[in-house]
Amino acid sequence: MRYFLYVRKSTDTEDKQVLSIEAQLAELRAIAKRDGLDVVEEFIEKRSAKTPGRPVFEEMMRRVEKGEAQGIVCWKIDRLSRNPVDSGRISWLLQEATIGKIITHERIYLPHDNVLLMSVEFGMANQYIRDLSVNVTRGLRQKARMGIYPSSAPLGYLNDPRTKTIVVDRKKAPTIRKAFEMYAKGKSRYEDIARFLFEKGIATGATRGWTKGGGKPLKREQIAFLLSNPFYIGRFRYAGEMYEGKHTPLVSRELFDRVQKVLRERSNKNRPPENNPQAYCGLLSCASCGCAITAEEKMKYQKNGNTHRYVYYRCTKKRGVCDGAYLREEKLDAELSDLLSRFHLPRHWAQEMERMAAQDAQEAEQSATISISALRAEIIALNGKIARLTDLFVEQDIERGEYLTRKRVLQDERRQLEEQVLKVEQNAAHWLEPLREWIKDASMLDEIAKSEDLSLKKSSLQKIFGSNLTLHAREARGTPKPHWFSLVGGKENPPKNSAVPILVDLRGVEPRPRPCHGRVLPLNYRPEQGPISTETSYQIFRARKPSLLELRERAGLKDSAGVQGSLSNHIFRLSAVRTKPLYNTRTLREIRML
Length: 594
Ligand SMILES: [Zn+2]
Fold this sequence. Notes:
The protein is of the alpha/beta class and 594 residues long.
């Protein structure tokens, strides 16, 4: 007997138990091999069986009727049909013995089988589909009434398929909340918010309904939608009605209201120009009084009818009189671009750092492996204990109650160890990602500095300086974060010998006059703190790397037999070849808090 193999994907989404096409194929081929079936062709259908008229199915049935094969292999009988027309046809061919055998993973259907049973099975498949479409609408509305948003979760939330509810996406939720906070301040534009989200890994295509393109910053409309979506304060609109949701709100009512206020002001066509923030708003503060730097749009009308638009940046003067900076956008942009390019990481440095990181990652993996094998050994020991305990119980040396109690204790212990193994596995290289990101950021700066994308420049500057950028009379200054600082230092003042000098000074040891505390970096900065090498900025980053001891502590291992070293030891060991240690204990503590 020759067989056709028929596979259909379930496009009826609710059909959860159904296997994917590949899985079905694999199962069916296994069945065919096991039973030694002569499969002459495999048919793969991608359409639902709800309605008659599946092209592949038709083709197969035509060839069955021609007698090319006498048997069909499929996963379940409902793969073949979910509508009365096709069901009838199959039943008839089977009764007539044109089809000699239908083999599924559950059972085999033969011509002399009870016809009634088979029609019942087909009938159920058919009814199932009919019920679905009615039930779906009813179910969704019911769900909404129960406070569960019956659709795909907005950004910052996830659909939990297990409980059929919407839960907070712990990874993205803080970012969304931050976006609301940023926007509420009234200094960010949609583009800034989109850029911010993009840098945190939220891009188009990340949510359903925005599938075009993808991998780009969200569009203005998407940001507007996000910022005005009441879902984030626990309510949602469904089928024209507002419902109180059961999900956890991401932002407070108060913050949401402030955001709505800003949105309203912005959408007001008669808004004063100040309300339309320019690209660099919210980036700088005034050096003389500490107020924010804002922008102002000015139009110049010439006699010949031409108009020119200028944007000026100036102090908001919220704290009274201030004669702080006042400069054109072009000037400021040139200034900031220049500043950015100073933090550029040259290609060959980036390569070297990547290499070092890869090596470190390997080491971290090795140390994690040591911890894990220690944990595994303990798990094996526990398994032995449990087995012995069971022996005692079987021999009736201990009471059942005692046996169960002791066994539970041992099992708990084992579960904890297993969780620790998981934790160590996850933690081993967690520092690597931010490092790689930084290398990528830093090696793009040259390009960014030359570009026209002001919001990209703004976000890069914020990465380097945080909120530490101030505008002096005509120049921007700031305190870069340590790893950025050492990068610029290393570039502009290469070490004279191989000695690696101190790279971070001691913050907060003695009071320094503002604004020159710590590592203020004016535009014409030439580091006097001493030479700083490329390796140092890398080292600052790698200091985040968990040491063996930390890994073991995290894993809850008290004995450190066979494994030595702490973070400081580790770094001292690394720097042993050099003339002096990279860090003293104090800086170490600070670096670890980075
Ligand atoms: Zn000022």
